[in-house]
Design brief:
Chain B: Keywords: Amino-acid transport, Signal, Transport. Chain B: It holds the Pfam family Peripla_BP_6. Chain B: InterPro entries: BCAA_transport, Leu-bd, Peripla_BP_I. The complex is a heterodimer. Chain A has one domain: ABC transporter involved in vitamin B12 uptake, BtuC (Orthogonal Bundle), CATH 1.10.3470. Chain A is an all-alpha fold. Chain A is 73% helix and 1% strand. In chain A, helix 1 runs antiparallel to helix 11 and helix 2 packs parallel to helix 4. Chain B is of the alpha/beta class. Chain B has a 7-stranded mixed β-sheet, sandwiched between helices. A 7-stranded mixed β-sheet of chain B has the order 7-6-8-9-10-15-16, sandwiched between helices. The radius of gyration of chain B is 22 Å and the shape is elongated. The interface between A and B is large, with 44 and 28 residues.
Chain lengths: 335, 394
Amino acid sequence: MDVINALVALTNYVLIPATAYGAQLALGALGVTLVYSILRFSNFAHGDTMAFGTGIVILFTWLFQSWGISLGPLPTALLALPFGIIVTAALLLGTDRVVYKFYRKVRAAPVILVMVSVGVMFVMNALTRFLIGVDQITFDDGERFVISARQWRDMTGLSEPLTLRSTQVITIVTALLVMVALFWFLNRTRTGKSMRAFSDNEDLALLSGINPDRVVTVTWIITGALATIAGTLYGLDKSFKAFTYFQLLLPIFAAAIVGGIGSPVGAILGGFVISFSEVGLTYAWKKVATYLIPHWEPDGLVQLLSTDYKFAVSFTILILVLIFKPTGLLKGKIV
Amino acid sequence: MKKLLLASAAISLCASASYAEDIKMGVLLGFTGPLESLAPAMAQGAEMAMKEVSDSGKLLGGDTVTPVRGDSTCVDAAAATAAAETLVTTDGVKGILGAMCSGATTAALQNVAMPNGIVMISPSATSPALSTMDDDGLFFRTAPSDARQGEVMSDELMEKGLKSVAVTYTNNDYGKGLADSFETAFKAAGGTVTISTAHEDGKGDYSAEVGSLASAGGDALVVAGYVDQGGSGVLRGALDSGAFETFVFPDGMVSQTLEDNFGSEINGSFGQLPDSEGQGMQTYLSMAEAAGYDGSSAYSGGAYDGAALMLLAMQAAESTDPSVYKDKIMEIANGPGEKIYPGELAKGLELIEAGTAIDYEGATAINLIGNGEAAGTFREIEIKDDKITTVKYR
């Protein structure tokens, strides 16, 4: 019984939250990695693109709610997602036309593009706040729980609660679908293949007749879609606040780099490595230890790091990887 | 510049118009900074008391009182010191109502008030550190120390038979101070704090924090945070994961937002906040309404009381010298004697002149304890039928 209780506690406080968080990070890291490998710069504006996309989704959600449209047990935001993606992709394409295109034309060094993206980040950040404000917004409607703590206790009679929120299930399912679709697109379609060719060797790709403008356009559209989906899932699961997406930038970049920047599989792997280390290293293992080791009641909390240091975890992993294996776990590429 | 000229012209006019002495009193509050929305109602409270005394013409045989405002900010100790310095040296104030935040108050007290021997009464500094600070008997406050709230919270838990709690606090002076004072009081009463951990405000995700709290366990979770910030995030996480069922809410959490967002899920949880009731507060609220400001704004009543206390003490000491009237403040505030409420300052002055003892109650039922700080009354609340209900005052 104690072993089961220990497993339940572990699942409730580590496995489920870390998996959902990992999926959100992975989607974010995919967007970063895509821009990095095809457009060849680190896009610092990605966090705020996520915030902007989520903001638009929320506005559409409110619109649908005022019309009385809902998805029953599922959150209305899922219905608003396609509209959010369209607006976000349009914004990214507009930004590209106005800002990035010039720097591509003059063949600016990647570091200049990075700085440009920092500027774009500030503008998008302000735009998001202007659109939807700085307050915390919860836009999750529909059924809250798949399994709630009370149901679980009634069902199993275990002393440890287990909860599974519907947003966590939605996050994981959506992330899986998006990843499968992305890989299918990159590996099986003509456009996807031309994108990969462009990423591998720009000059050769141009010589073989690939239209660079088309590749750039498709990349931004996919990036917009990934950012909006990642942001919306994060917002549904936690809550929306314009500032928090900026803070997500560090774990997202850490995920992309740990996995091997430029490698989509690496981005996904990195997302889960980061989320499990963040949650696992800052979790207080006292309860699990008490259940597992009989006759031992630890005095402390058996916690490696205080939760305050959550971001330090991704930062440390980032530094370790950059020192010892700069190409990441799966071989990425460095421009 | 034009305003300044006008103001000084007005002040000099006032001064020349009165035959008796014109007493200048400093109103040193955070007119700019993180609490700027609270400062105006506090300043108006203090100035209303000064005007009341001044208009009565009974202070020390007809002295008038002129308030002089200074900006203590809230977070900038250097600015608070400079503002206090100006009040004391340039304006020559006989007492300072202020400062606003604990940090600014400490700076103004140690750098200006103590070297110059000026009395300071803060209506809103609640840091426990001010209770034990050496102040030459010059510092008082009409706000209760956060340590008091910690004790009240501990008493409440003990009465309900909850002996082991987890604590999460917002990572700033308020949260840390409250969590520490609660932990001390609760341990002294025989309770156990399983974990006391900080949460950062303004984050999206509090599952890691909730994980540690849940692992430490306890009968209830004390959420010493802000309802518009991380406090709600931790509460949401704890409810969702089924980690805790009973919660304790200090003042930062008790608000309409809490009821609206969590009402049905936190039935049976409880909390407390500094709040006063009774005749004095009612009178003060209607006086403030007549004067055109919101008297229920936090610490506004305390500001009125602080100003009134200094002026009544001057009357009792028959002197405007801070080193003389400082000894009378506790006596005026605690009685025994005839009770004086807001709007009755003239009566208070008369009684003192006639040699009758008074007990200044004021808007906040003031009673100074220890080193000269308000004992404070706390409203105990409980969430019942999805609503915040008042259990009692203590």
